Amino acid sequence: MGDVSKPSSLDPDSLGFMCGLEIHQQLATGKLHSRMPSELYDFGIDDIPDDWGYSERRLRASRGEGGKIDVAARFEQRRNRTFAYVQPPNAGLIELDEAPPLPHDREAVDIVLTMSALLQAKPVPALQPMRKTVVDGSNTSGFQRTTLVSTNGQLITKTGEVGVSVICLEEDSARKLETKSTPEGELVTYTLDRLGLPLVEIATDPDIVTPEHAKESALALGSLLRDTRRVRRGLGSIRQDLNVSIACGDRVEIKGCQDLEWIPRIIRIEMARQLHMYRLANQLRDEAKLPPLPYDRRNTEITIENRVAIAAKSRVPMEFHDISESLSSCESSMVKKALSEGASPLAVRLPGFSGKLGTKSLDNEGSQLPRLGRELASAAKLAGIAGIFHSDELPAYGISEEDVVSIRSSLMLSEGDAFAFCVAPYWQAKLALESVVDRSRKAYHRIPQEVRNVVIKKGQPDDGTTTALRPLPGGARMYPETDIPLQDISIERWKLICSSLPLSTEERSQRLSTLDISSNQAESILNGELDDILFEGIEGELALPAKAWASALLEFGSSNVNALSVAIHLRESGQITRDGILPLIKESTGSKTSDLIDWMVSEAKSRGFIPADNSDVENAVEEIMIEKADFISERGMASVGPLMGLVMQKLGGSADGKIVSQILRDKISSITDS
Question: How many CB atoms lie within 10 A of CB 199?
């Protein structure tokens, strides 16, 4: 039951909703297997320095430990792509796969063990790296190294407990810079600055009960990881994947859920898509007089599905037809341009699919309604083409009714039949249309298990819909890494980790509440992960006042904490002015507190950063008050703010603002009271 045009109205419980999370979080350490720094370079393809290295290669899928080639790896190999790699300063022979990897970075292992302890997970006795076949070019070796660290954890949320099945430590992939189409295939360019950064991968059990619970769980897990204070922050440093299914559908993995606010909507749109495709499958089966598809996938009978697969293969032939003659007078600019460049116009017949592919229309929340035509197009685009045309959306895009009639005639279609065509280099058009036919045949079955990507426009989800990315990988892509020795996790090491766990967000917030700082300051300090530094300054040898030290950290940051703490100490003790803080901390050298104090006091004297004494301030205040007597008479105490600037200017910035303010208030108050 449910209306696919109203995704928010779908009932997760009655639809047999299941959901789990996969979180990938970068760690704030060096690279996992090369000891190179984990610096990222904010360069686009046109900004790459000329002295960076450059290499090209092609990748092919290899057999896994069980002797089988993974379905996802086989698909990627057929895409006929060449990969180019630019080599930044933090990428060496290991990143280029020209030297064997080093053992795990010990700091990264300790961080993941800490996360395991926070999630009450049980560590494995030894770390055994595995190779996970990846042939999309994002790893120069053709595989990603992944190491199981712990299992059977638990995430506590307000809605309920969520099991944590595995916690792994793995390498991050290379960053894609550009994809270019060539007559021979695609050329994909990557930069290797991110390749090898350590990631923690945390996969939950399918214990999430609603789309809103998924968002809640992602927030809770992200907060727990940040509690370690050992993870990277910023855009792209954490990635959330969703594993979603309903009873009449099947599991899909949705990538690209960067904005947590979108998670419930993305999940509900996926529920609507699976429901729509299930109904379409039964409509196709009914017309072909085939057994219906059970509502619950656990009741699927393999013998019946095999029979349906044979029937679908017979009804939807894998035949490619050249329709050059039908398009000879086509006025579509896209078609004419492609044909002028030597592209081949190929078409496939889709018997029985007329009216079932659909046209673009929106649900009541502004997202595209699910339709098979979009599924066919996203499958075809994986071959690297811009898109396909199908009969349900024609005439359109410059393709006339006459063109459609001509194509239907050449393909000898009946009224209930549909067609799809593509104009691209022959090998590419054929690969794309193979995917179209394959996807059309699968429409007779439950949705395929696959990896899908959230449609992104201008850096954020377009409308919450997704497109197919690749088949869901299986166990065949995993095999042992033989270049890295096993690393034992001793009982002593685990006990040490468990005895020194970081404070939780709630504990940190409670600790801040004991200080004489405002709630806004406390919140900003916590969000900026500055609370440990704050307490070090308060409890350290300089015994800095909480409010002044908190204000300084929020204003100047924590890049040179030792120098900043000395500057605040000197300002609070009346030895330097506020204006002297920034230039002095920028130019300070050394880290010994006593040396910094001596240097700053000396520099403050030579540069005029010494505060004026109170008598000088009082004289300046009195002079300004005489000049602005009428203004004070008119504004009263409200004149303090404007006069502050005049007094500070008169004193050349050498006065303490708090002292100036207090003297102004006292003197103006004595006048207005009298």
Answer: 28
Q: Which residue has the tokens 């045309």?
A: 389
The pLDDT tens digits for 162-189 are 999 999 999 999 999 998 877 667 889 9
Q: Yes or no: say if 350 and 317 are a contact pair by the CB < 8 Å rule.
A: no
Helix (H) or strand (E) holding 178: strand 175-182
Q: How far apart are CA 253 and CA 439, in angstroms?
A: 18
Q: How far is it, in rounded angstroms, from Cα 164 to Cα 203?
A: 6
The pLDDT value given to residue 484: 92
Report the distance separating Cα 253 and Cα 244, nearest Å. Answer: 7
- At 646, the pLDDT band (50, 70, 90 cuts) reads confident
**pLDDT at residue 564 in the model:** 92
Residue 41's SS3 state is coil
Residues linked to residue 442 through DSSP beta bridges, in sequence order: none
**What would the pLDDT profile of 238-289 be if each residue is shown by its tens digit?**
999 999 999 999 999 999 888 899 999 999 999 999 999 999 999 999 999 9
Strands annotated E in 58-157: 81-87, 122-123, 126-127, 129-133, 143-156
Q: What is the pLDDT of residue 306?
A: 96
Cis peptide before 395 (omega within 30 of 0): yes
Count of helix runs (H) and strand runs (E) in the chain: 21, 21
Question: How far is Cα 400 from Cα 395, in angstroms, rounded to an integer?
Answer: 5
Retrieve residue 2's tokens: 């449910």
Closest CA to 144 of 107, 189, 197, 191: 197
User: pLDDT tens digits, residue range 538-581?
Assistant: 999 999 999 999 999 999 888 888 999 999 999 888 888 888 88
Pairwise CA distance, residues 291 & 308, whole Å: 8
Q: Is the pTM of this model over 0.90?
A: no
b/e per residue, 186-197, with b = 16+ CB within 10 A?
bebbbbbbbbbb
Helical pair 561-572 and 546-556, crossing angle rounded to 10 deg: 130
Three-state SS letters, 548-586: HHHHHHHHHCCCCHHHHHHHHHHHHCCCCCHHHHHHHHH
Exposed, middle or buried, 174 (CB in 10 Å: 0-12/13-18/19+)? Answer: buried
Nearest to 443 by CA among 300, 320, 298, 313: 313
Query: What angle separates helix 531-539 from helix 519-527, to the nearest 10 degrees?
Result: 120
Q: Do 345 and 399 touch, CB atoms closer than 8 A? A: no
C-alpha distance across the termini of the chain, in Å: 80
Residue tagged 């039964």 (tokens)? 282
